[in-house]
Input
Amino acid sequence: MLDDPLSHMNRFNHALAAFSLGYFLWDFVDCKQNSALPVL
Output
């Protein structure tokens, strides 16, 4: 696993990565719409 981390990718890991990315994108958009992010 340390030699080639992509050799252990399976359907669960793909689903987990897709869910995590989707959740964080949705959270970012939600925070942006509700102005929860500090103004830079």
